[in-house]
Amino acid sequence: MDFHGNSVHQVGFRNRRVIEAIVAQMEALPFCTRRFTNLPAIKLARKLAELAPGDLNKVLFVPGGTEAIGMALKLARAATGRFKTISMWDSFHGASLDAISVGGEAIFRSGIGPLLSGTEHVPPPDPSHCPWSCGQECTLQCARYIEYILEKEGDVGAVIAETVRSTPYIPPPEYWQIIRSACDRHGALLILDEIPNCLGRTGKMFACQHYGVVPDMLVIGKGLGGGIFPLAALIAREGLDIMGDRALGHYTHEKNPVACAAGLATIACLEEEGLLDNARRMGEHALERLKALGEKHEIIGSVRGLGLLLGVELVRDRKTRERAVEEAERVMYCALAKGLSFKLTMGNVIQLTPPLTISHDEMDAALDILDDCLPTCATSSSS
Ligand SMILES: Cc1ncc(COP(=O)(O)O)c(C=O)c1O
């Protein structure tokens, strides 16, 4: 059971409808020379504009999420005339030089030499490791700090962040509202990166819909290609269509018709097979069971989830919240041996992101494996 899937598998692996759409499109038009456009790309752009909240209705396709982030950063500079950004420590926005500059993980940033200038970083909304020691509930000081920097700097072009990050960063409802209005007050654009968590992962088509907030740009990718094709998109609001005379993209496989056909089939599956609803129901069920595991296993420091983006934080001590990194690794290998694959994030957070097609029984089988493996790791840590 793949509860990792690089976050591309919203509609599962080898989805029949996606495969059929791809095969049909390969027969009809497998590639579109840059001079032209093509019907699947137009249809997918229209569909995304229809689904995206507010006035997000201008779409550019690219093969990967990193390139889409690069386009968003360039567009923010062109639109505001400002180059500074605010982004979050611990975030990941891709592996290219511009993306690692706004990204916040040392493993990608260190030893590379000068990164983009003007990239201010702030703490993410992570109550467990909050510099303001807010405790188990985020007190929104991290959101107010962003407003503070926007005011002090005075010329920040964009705030770029993941709407929700692989648990445990699921900010409280007011978080994005505070940042949205701070951006508006200080002339900065809000770019939300939903590359791994778009298209139903959180139980809504886009994670920002949980917050009632419309960003200036929404970046999506990963599962957009149906788990088969590389495909990402920058969805910007109407007023940002300002670079018609310049090239914002220019990627060989941008708006690839086969990738776009895969995208259309993926969205059709999500909509017609009730997968968002399933993500909500299975997510609630899993969260309840994970909370019960938290009562049983001392090593569980916290459990969070939104739809089928679930996380279990392992700690050595519930008070100090010391990360149980080696223990988490032992749990991961124990689960792998029993047939469950997942990713560890921040070293000690078990990230559970199953396909949105998962059944009740499959979810229970996976959580039983976790339940079996947690005592193994706790015993080994004390020996
Ligand atoms: C939040 C986030 N942004 C951007 C990216 C980069 O996307 P890609 O690997 O398609 O370039 C990723 C990939 O893991 C991601 O998780």
Concise description?
By secondary structure, this protein is an alpha/beta fold.
How are the secondary structure elements laid out?
Layout: E1 2-3, H1 16-28, H2 39-51, E2 56-62, H3 65-80, E3 84-88, H4 97-102, H5 106-109, E4 119-122, H6 141-153, E5 156-162, H7 174-186, E6 189-193, E7 217-220, E8 232-237, H8 257-272, H9 275-296, E9 300-306, E10 309-314, H10 325-337, E11 341-345, E12 349-352, H11 360-382
Parallel strand pairs: 1-11, 3-4, 3-5, 5-6, 6-7
Antiparallel strand pairs: 2-8, 7-8, 9-10, 10-12, 11-12
Helix pairs in contact: 1-8, 2-8, 6-7, 9-11, 10-11
The structure holds pyridoxal-5'-phosphate.
Could you explain the architecture of this structure?
The protein has 383 residues and is α/β, with parallel strands linked by helices. Helices cover 40% and strands 16% of the residues. The protein contains 11 helices and 12 strands. The protein has helices spanning 16-28, 39-51, 65-80, 97-102, 106-109, 141-153, 174-186, 257-272, 275-296, 325-337, 360-382; strands spanning 2-3, 56-62, 84-88, 119-122, 156-162, 189-193, 217-220, 232-237, 300-306, 309-314, 341-345, 349-352. It has a 7-stranded mixed β-sheet, with helices on both faces. Strand 9 (300-306) and strand 10 (309-314) form a beta hairpin. Helix 1 (16-28) packs antiparallel against helix 8 (257-272), helix 6 (141-153) runs parallel beside helix 7 and helix 10 packs across helix 11 (360-382). The chain is globular and about 60 Å long. It binds pyridoxal-5'-phosphate. Pyridoxal-5'-phosphate binds at residues 64-66, 69, 92-94, 162, 193, 195-196, 221, 232.
